[in-house]
Amino acid sequence: SPRVPPDPAVPTAALSPFAVTRRIGHPYQNRTPPKRKKPRTSFSRVQICELEKRFHRQKYLASAERATLAKALKMTDAQVKTWFQNRRTKWRRQTAEEREAERQQANRLMLHLQQEAFQKSLAQPLPQDPLCMHNSSLYALQNLQPWAEDNKVTSVSGV
């Protein structure tokens, strides 16, 4: 039987159920071989101590200052730069946590002072309202303090 050429309107993947579809990655992917991950650099206690002392005084270094410090500590410029970036991130997180703790402490203090003020206001007798003085129902209501335990009203008289 004569061979029929494939119809250009029908995609070939639809014709073959076993068609291998090639996964296309990022356009810049696969151009360079994957790099081996560099092992984590360990710094000596002396290096860390000097870096911390400098960071305490100065959060940012100019390139000349960074180069001088790197040379003094026998580190590369990139190592000092990265250490300072990471240390600033840690510092920001710590200061944010401290500010939040201070905010919560201030809120607790405010609540305590409000409760104290409320308790004091309950202990003080209410000023007499002139309108309530002449109306026995209002007078009884004004003196009724349901939150005060010692004011148990057994009967309302004069209604």
End-to-end separation in angstroms reads 115 Å
Q: What is the level 1 CATH name of the domain at 43-118?
A: Mainly Alpha
Q: Specify the overall morphology.
A: flat
**What fold name stands as the CATH topology of the domain at 43-118?**
Arc Repressor Mutant, subunit A
Mean pLDDT across the residues is 80
Give the fraction of residues assigned to helices: 40-55%
What is the name of the CATH architecture of the domain at 43-118? Orthogonal Bundle
Main β-sheet description: none
The CATH homologous superfamily of the domain at 43-118 corresponds to: Homeodomain-like
The tally of helices reads 6
Uncertain residue ranges? none
Order of helices and strands: HHHHHH
Query: In terms of structural class, how would the helical and strand content be classed?
Result: mainly alpha
Amount of beta strand: under 5%
Q: Total strand count, please? A: 0
Rg (CA only): 39 Å
